[in-house]
Specification:
heterodimer; A: alpha+beta; three-stranded mixed beta sheet; three-stranded antiparallel beta sheet; 7 strands; disordered C terminus; B: alpha+beta
């Protein structure tokens, strides 16, 4: 069962409004940041494939996912979920007025798989260090 | 540079943003999603484009997904080349003091932050509008279900037998259509019929909306079986992909009697269970 540590943070900066200023919310306290090199080490250990090959293949897989996403495909990445693109676009009154110029931003999103959603539902939370930013 | 095709989708939106009730109708650009590619297709694709053994690609892909999933579930942030960083996040209610934070109300999620490289590539992607062959008239899910049933009836008459005996029980918005792209793909004579394709909802202006609600599109393909297993991925990357997208939103296409494509689009389908 997953266990996440959290810390309390205060609303401030551009996110703070007259209503929520000073209020606190919970944020995950990350256990660590795993770099690409660390990731390749873990995969090499897990798959019994040579480390040098792992780096090349991982790079090829991720590059392929990136290119497919940039070409409008949805990529279902096993237990992790599905990547797909979305638009942040201006609303127009008629269908004809809608054009590519209306697209302000192209986003890529990860829609979690059922597996990971279920795992996350079972997550336990433990109170980490309370950090105040005021 | 990538290319993403778009279409104009009808939406109902809140005029003055969240918290208001006044709504208006309008149209927004939405990306056409060609296909959902799974890890097997991905491995095939990489193996075809490189000299790397397919078996090794499959092993590494599995391990890569496993590592990311496990690390995120255990509170780590993990940086993946070309794509970005995965990390856990929690949605929590605001509280006046840290001692009043209620962990029982937390919802844990996976946060994906795209890399600078991916963001740059996305912003340089070309967007092209497709024009439906026939004007798209929004219809209800019930009407679409009836359209689908009628279409399969016609197909059955044409082929001399029922395409799929239970097709009338197809749920156009419900569990059977969740997750998978191929709901059923019966082979009738030399014709492979593939029914079912999910397009996920694109909440254009509100990224905070819960993604449990999905727009659903059903695609019916009829293609002559070339002797090989019908593969939607090959299909998508071949000529029919463009024809399918050109005829998006309820159009119908027929060419050389080899491929027939029909999209049935359902706007605002019920949440997928």
């Amino acid at each position: 069962m997953p266990l996440l540590r959290f810390k309390a943070r205060q609303m401030k900066g551009s996110h703070a409004t007259s209503i929520n200023k000073g209020m606190v919310f919970a944020q995950v306290e990350r256990a660590s940041k795993i770099s690409t090199d660390d990731l390749n080490d873990l995969i090499a250990q897990d798959s019994q494939v040579e480390r040098s090959e792992v780096a090349v293949i991982t790079d090829a897989i991720c590059k392929q996912i990136k290119e497919l996403v940039c070409n409008g495909h949805s990529i279902q990445v096993g237990t992790l979920g599905t990547f797909s693109v979305g638009f942040n676009a201006k609303v127009q009154p008629t269908q004809d007025l809608v054009s590519a110029k209306d697209v302000r931003k192209i986003n890529v999103r990860l829609y979690e798989s059922k597996y990971i959603k279920n795992e996350l539902k079972a997550t336990r939370f433990s109170d980490g260090t309370v950090v105040s930013e005021s | 540079m990538g290319l993403i095709k778009m279409y104009a989708a009808a939406i109902t939106y809140l005029v003055n943003g969240p918290g208001t009730t006044e709504t208006a109708e309008g149209y927004v650009a939405r990306p056409v999603r060609y296909s959902t590619i799974d890890v097997n297709d991905l491995a095939d694709h990489i193996a075809a484009d490189s000299r790397i053994e397919r078996s090794k690609i499959a092993v590494i892909t599995d391990s890569l997904i496993k590592q990311i999933t496990e690390m995120v579930l255990n509170g780590h942030a993990i940086s993946v080349p070309h794509l970005g960083t995965f990390s856990p996040k929690i949605k929590s209610k605001l509280a006046p003091t840290s001692t009043l934070i209620d962990a029982n109300s937390f919802v844990a999620k996976v946060n994906f932050r795209p890399s600078a490289e991916l963001k740059r590539d996305l912003q340089s992607t070309r967007i092209e509008k497709i024009t439906p062959a026939t004007p798209f008239t929004p219809v209800t899910a019930q009407q679409e279900a009836e359209n689908l049933a009628a279409y399969l009836d016609r197909l059955a008459v044409e082929l001399g037998k029922e395409v799929y005996p239970d097709y009338k029980t197809i749920q156009v918005h419900g569990t059977p259509l969740a997750e998978n792209i191929n709901i059923f793909s019966p082979l009738i004579g030399d014709t492979q019929v593939v029914v079912g394709h999910i397009l996920r909802v694109d909440y254009t202006d509100n990224q905070d909306v819960d993604h449990d609600e999905e727009d659903v599109a059903i695609v019916v393909f009829k293609a002559k079986n070339s002797g090989n297993k019908f593969n939607p991925y090959e299909f998508v990357n071949g000529r029919p992909r463009y024809l399918a997208n050109d005829k998006f939103n309820g159009a119908y296409w027929e060419d050389d009697n080899t491929v027939e494509v029909r999209y049935l689009k359902i706007e605002h389908a019920l949440p997928v269970a």
